[in-house]
Amino acid sequence: IPPRSTLGGDKCGESLHWDKIWSGWVQVVSCGKRCEIRLEDPNSGELFAACFMDPGQREATVELVLDSSWYFVLRIEDRSGKRAFNGLGFGKRNEAFDFNVALSDHEKHVRRVNEEVGGDNSGDSQDHIDIHPAVNHRLKV
């Protein structure tokens, strides 16, 4: 997307829904404390881009658009540190809602794990069952 014209944030009405360069699947993958947002081709599964969300960095990685709940801005960074800001739009409100919930669920899981690690460890560790999906488990939204 083009650079912002104001400090307030991006708006869908300005450019996000007009310049579509790709269409496909969005997968949210929980990799321990880090969350990976994968944009993949629906036919071949080829990766178009990936956005990595570290703990506490959601607002910097996935920005909400000011005038629509269907659109987001992803900060995609390559190995050399170059950044691109790509607009991500969903065709249906429930798809955008599910995407947002998947990100929130990941954050809640990381917070819960951090609290358990920092909390009282005097209890029997055999009573604890980890029901969080394994690394690289894919959720389609």
Automatic annotation (TrEMBL):
Q: Which residues form the NECAP PHear domain?
A: 1-125
Q: Which InterPro entries match?
A: NECAP_PHear, PH-like_dom_sf
Region Disordered, as annotated, extends over 116-141
Q: Which domain of life is it from?
A: Eukaryota
For this record, the Gene Ontology CC terms, alphabetical, are: clathrin vesicle coat
One of its GO biological process terms is: endocytosis
This protein is called what? DUF1681 domain-containing protein
State the taxonomy lineage. Eukaryota, Viridiplantae, Streptophyta, Embryophyta, Tracheophyta
